[in-house]
Specification:
By secondary structure, the chain is mainly α. About 85% of the residues lie in helices and about 0% in strands. The termini are far apart.
Length: about 70
């Protein structure tokens, strides 16, 4: 029985190392995704500001529309 314990321990160690490496890759991927989504949000906000500036609607009309108080 002692003979199978060593390979089993080695398999556990290898599995643990694999989990650590996979988690590191996951963390990097999540960070990249977050940065890309933040960048997208900034671009959308800039696009919205440009649309508001080009609009012939007043600030109050735009706020009312966004809040759902009235239709433009």
């Amino acid at each position: 029985m002692g003979r199978t314990a060593v390979p089993l321990e080695k398999k556990i160690e290898n599995a643990q190392q694999k989990v650590v490496k996979t988690k590191e890759k996951y963390d990097v991927a999540v960070e990249e995704l977050k940065k890309l989504m933040d960048k997208r949000d900034v671009l959308k906000k800039e696009e919205l500001i440009v649309a508001i500036e080009k609009s012939n609607k007043s600030y109050d009309e735009i706020i009312e529309f966004i809040n759902g108080d009235t239709l433009i």
